[in-house]
């Protein structure tokens, strides 16, 4: 009997709101998701406790139970530590119990970028065909608890994920009403000047709903109350299109754009709308450039797990 080379990897995709855990089996050529589960991040008071709760769900409790483990977290990673701006604790593998020093941290949008290079993208929705350069950079952006950015740089020898903290860059405001909304966001705990995380996120959608209707809602309620033809949807779509346009231009993403994240997954009409298209394409010297960009929506909530698994199998293959 031929001996199988299949390996098992344990991965986590930690967001500002939810954490997902997954167990995969396979190899670098392809992997099967054996099991996945989700939990609210607020149920854990530390990164170590989060991993402990995963073990309580039946996932591996330590590195001896799997061939590799990769944990994707929402913040910049330096070595075995990551500062997490949208979570009240940070990730430090030195304090990760049995996992200490024997797994890998990656940024959550590195996981989203890596997911774009898996078969998962075959199910992505095509929003605009464009005329993509097969060798061009692929931009990835997604609004959820924050506004994540990443890109895939493509070379003749392969590809490389490029990370970004552009969600914390100042968000451009174009008229007086947008400035009023920015001030409203600041009074509700946002930053001055406003950044992408404040404006194009689940919380940004909730604050925009309150600003335009006077009704205070949670991000989930804002999505449930969303009228595709109403002013909240139109304004947020305009903001989202602007954020996507800026990231495509900043990364020179002639290979296309992939939109992901919870906001568009739950309310895809926000990125299908005319307001989004007008904001994304613009009416200037770069309209032709923007119309050549292929735009896809990856609405799979488990994309981050698939991307983290891709990173784990890459580690096994490279021997790192």
Structure description:
By secondary structure, the protein is of the alpha/beta class. It has two domains: 7-114 and 302-318, Nucleotidyltransferase, domain 5, CATH 3.30.420; 125-297, 3-Layer(aba) Sandwich (Hexokinase, domain 1). The chain is 35% helix and 25% strand. The protein has helices at 47-56, 108-115, 176-187, 196-199, 202-213, 219-224, 231-251, 262-266, 269-272, 274-281, 287-291, 303-318, and strands spanning 7-14, 18-27, 30-40, 68-73, 77-78, 81-82, 91-92, 104-107, 125-128, 138-143, 147-155, 158-164, 256-260, 295-297. The strands form three sheets. It has a six-stranded mixed beta sheet with strand order 9-14-13-10-11-12, with helices on both faces. It has a five-stranded mixed beta sheet with strand order 3-2-1-4-8. Strands 5-6-7 form a three-stranded antiparallel beta sheet, with no helix packed on it. A hairpin with a 2-residue loop joins strand 5 and strand 6. Helix 2 (108-115) crosses helix 12 (303-318). The longest helix is centred in the last third of the chain and has 21 residues, at 231-251. It is globular. The mean pLDDT is 94.
Structural topology:
Elements: E1 7-14, E2 18-27, E3 30-40, H1 47-56, E4 68-73, E5 77-78, E6 81-82, E7 91-92, E8 104-107, H2 108-115, E9 125-128, E10 138-143, E11 147-155, E12 158-164, H3 176-187, H4 196-199, H5 202-213, H6 219-224, H7 231-251, E13 256-260, H8 262-266, H9 269-272, H10 274-281, H11 287-291, E14 295-297, H12 303-318
Parallel strand pairs: 1-4, 4-8, 10-13, 13-14
Antiparallel strand pairs: 1-2, 2-3, 5-6, 6-7, 9-14, 10-11, 11-12
Helix pairs in contact: 2-12, 5-7, 7-10
């Amino acid at each position: 009997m031929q001996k199988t080379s299949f390996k098992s990897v344990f991965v986590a995709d930690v967001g500002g709101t939810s954490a997902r855990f997954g167990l995969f089996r396979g190899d670098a050529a392809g992997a099967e998701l054996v099991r996945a589960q989700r939990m609210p991040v607020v149920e854990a008071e530390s990164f170590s406790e989060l991993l402990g709760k995963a073990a309580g769900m039946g996932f591996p409790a330590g590195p001896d139970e799997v061939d590799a483990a990769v944990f994707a977290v929402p913040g910049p990673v330096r070595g075995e530590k990551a500062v997490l701006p949208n979570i009240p604790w940070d990730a430090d593998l030195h304090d990760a119990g049995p996992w200490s020093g024997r797994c890998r941290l990656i940024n959550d949008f590195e996981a989203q970028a890596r997911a774009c290079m898996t078969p998962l993208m075959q199910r992505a929705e095509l929003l605009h065909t464009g005329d993509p350069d097969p060798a061009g950079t692929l931009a990835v952006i997604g609004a959820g608890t924050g506004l994540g950015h990443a890109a895939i740089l493509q070379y003749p020898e392969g590809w490389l994920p490029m990370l970004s903290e552009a969600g914390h860059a100042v968000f451009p405001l174009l008229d007086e009403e947008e400035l009023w909304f920015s001030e409203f966001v600041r009074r509700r705990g946002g930053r001055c000047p406003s950044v992408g995380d404040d404006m194009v996120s689940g919380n940004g959608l909730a604050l925009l709903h309150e600003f335009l209707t006077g009704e205070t809602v949670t991000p989930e309620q804002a999505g449930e109350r969303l009228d595709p033809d109403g002013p909240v949807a139109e304004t947020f779509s305009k903001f989202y299109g602007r954020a996507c346009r800026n990231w495509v231009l900043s990364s020179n993403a002639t290979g296309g754009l992939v939109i992901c994240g919870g906001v568009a997954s739950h309310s895809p009409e926000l990125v299908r709308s005319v307001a989004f298209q007008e904001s994304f394409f613009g009416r200037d010297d770069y309209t032709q450039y923007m119309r050549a960009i292929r735009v896809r929506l990856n609405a799979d909530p488990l994309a981050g797990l698939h991307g983290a698994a891709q990173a784990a199998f890459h580690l096994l293959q490279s021997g790192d």
